[in-house]
Amino acid sequence: TSLFDVKNRKWSEEILEKLQIPLEFLPKVYEGTEITGYIKKDIAKLTGLSEKTPVVAGGGDQAAGGVGNGIVEEGNVSVTIGTSGVVFAHSEKVVIDPLGRLHTFCHAVPGKWHLMGVMLSAGGSFRWLRDTLCEEEKKDAKKKKIDPYEIMTEKAKSVPIGSEGLIFLPYLTGERCPYPDPYARGVFFGLSLKHTKEHIIRSVMEGITFGLRDSIEIMKEINLPIGEKFIVSGGGVKSDFWCQMMADIFGKKVVRLICQEGASFGAAILASVGTGFYNDVKSACRKIIKEKDEFDFNKENIKIYEKFYGIYKKLYPSLKNLFTESVKIR
Description:
Layout: E1 4-5, E2 10-11, H1 13-19, E3 35-38, H2 41-47, E4 54-56, H3 61-68, E5 77-81, E6 85-91, E7 103-106, E8 113-119, H4 123-133, H5 135-144, H6 148-156, E9 167-169, E10 187-189, H7 197-221, E11 229-233, H8 240-250, E12 253-257, H9 263-274, H10 281-288, E13 291-295, H11 299-327
Parallel strand pairs: 5-11, 11-12
Antiparallel strand pairs: 1-2, 3-4, 5-6, 6-8, 7-8, 9-10, 12-13
Helix pairs in contact: 3-9, 4-5, 4-7, 5-6, 6-7, 7-8, 9-10
């Protein structure tokens, strides 16, 4: 709505006054663990739940997912690779990127905030690759009764770090963070006769991960506290290979959790606090959330990725005006 005062966690009286919108038109604002009401009689009848069942406010998908991943203390950061890609960080105070490259929202944790970098086509880029260039892998996967992504990832392993100079920009549907640009487009840079489908697969995975790193670098730039490990979730992190790639590109340990249900798990944690099973969200997460495995970064791999990431960062600024020009040609 753009009517919210994020810093003070309430509707902005100043904006409402300027737009002549009465405050009573808007719903009451709740913290994530507050009870907002109870199950209605007709819903109780449909579900078999008691009418005394409390309903807790919860949070939006990313805020609840942040709780489900345990991103509830200073320094906590998560990375999610779904159709979109999200870098999510907890903050004890309001921190705003002055250039608007990251989003700052109220967290579902009472009295706290979160910063978020969102790229539009993370797993979406990998899906595009599967559906456009990997028909052979899809047929093979069907025969073997496995996911095509497993075969694609296995092929990517045969290619050296940096895909021998092939770099992918994952802006297939424009971009949101760090470049709010609807005209941005995908690019394969450095393509040569030596490159194979295996190179293309790996370069797409690396390009997506570089795109996620962009948001991490901005968080560092604005002095947001960042810990030594990142919690990862989403379809992309089913792959050990991709988890290791993230550790090497981010220069941080990467951790997967036992429960991968994200937002729904976070909503359950918020409900457990709201109904008194736990005193607060932090202690609930410490008790409930369990780590599954960890991937440590390889220092030699970091050195190589650093060079390719340096090129990656220069590509969008070099192409920005050309993206706009090409899209507007009719």
